[in-house]
Records
---
Amino acid sequence: MDLTHPFFVLALIAGYGAVILVLGLGFVILFQMFNGTINLKKLISEKDGTGSLSRFQFLIFTFVISLSLMLLVIASIECGSYKFPVLGGEILALLGISGSSYVVSKGIQKGNNENPLNTETNPKPPGWHKSQSEANNS
């Protein structure tokens, strides 16, 4: 590998620029999190404030897989291969399962929140008229 080749130098400069940009963005986000501009209180909670196991699982799976991928990249650099590790189908399947469990839980919650017998949220069907006894009482 020729370290003086113009494309290698360009790739190196672009790589360092990308790293500086991502680190800068990360520091801005961390500063805003500690400053209170970005509120993380409801990161893994539902609208009513209760915790969501599916959101927590999705968050943990995402962090575990991204940190594992970062370690694989660092290990490949130390070995001198400079190749991005191949993402196996198993990794993508785990992320898909985690994401789909979140979607299924949201569907179940949406189904549980709808009460078909509630007349306030479920108006009378078209053509519905009061019976004579109800009309006489009012």
---
Amino acid sequence: MAAREASMAKREAALASREKLLISREEACSKLEAENAELRRVVGNEEAALRTAVGLHRRTKEAVKVKKEQNVQMSQQVEELNERVEEANQCGVCMDRACNRVLIDCGHTFCEECIGSVAALAAARRTCPSCRKRFTKQQIRKLFL
């Protein structure tokens, strides 16, 4: 009987040891589950931040594309305006850049020398070289630019 009791005591001790080991493993598992939950929360936050950053990058990239297109359009408009200015500065008679510019009532501009030769004509033949509207010598005005 003593051997039996010793065997029982030995089994109970082994069982108690296993229960302690099981409890210790359950505690470790609970800690790991808590760490896993925390890591999932952190990863979720990082994923949300990454999605936000990616969205911001896309919007920024699209805004840059729009700005580039606007710059191209503005460059084209500036070029067109420069061409218009060059045309406006060009004498309609000699086709050079007008010097000593004058304006007649119809709104066209010419070199003073070129329009002077037209103004020297008889009044009946004195017409704007661009639009053929009649003008008088008094309608010639100097431009100061």
---
Amino acid sequence: MNEKRDVYALVFQKATGRYQQGDVLSRHHSYNAAIKAANNSYNSFLMIQKYTVEQKMNKTLSAARQLKNLIGQDNWRSALEQIMQGNEDFYSDDDCWRIIKADCAMDVLVSELESDEYLLGSFNSWFLADVTNLPESVFQILQKSEAYEAIGELIISLGKVDELAQEYVRHDGSGHHFSHYDGNEHSFCWYGFHEYRIFRVN
């Protein structure tokens, strides 16, 4: 089918292009991720094709109203365009809202934590002890000495960032990290199967 070929090729090219400069292992992972993304996108494409023109219009209008209620009159149009273009992580025009595709949110969180050793070392000592299985006293002493970056480097070296991120969300939700304004998290669903998380950032 030409449609499957075109959709699959487009998504595969987009996914693998992000890792052109990566090492062999990164390229291997990106190849597998690209296959998965292409298959998911084609399945979504088939589902959308089943809708009539009227159904598509109604779903688009419903999504527009929901976005308008969430992020305001001045932001919903461009945000909806970004979603329709398949963008996974972006800000509203006024930079007050951040919108992240739900199945990418954990990867974004892990990436941001890995790039900020100070933040990693700033979590409560009991929480860091639970995640790393190290004595809480280790983190209490280091934090008392303000060695937050050293703690962050330790967590990264132990390969515990993914686990820490998952526990962080389980305890406090994604809004605690992404929403600098009020800590809240809002959900938005595009065509019933593309789910996004929306956060107020300022």
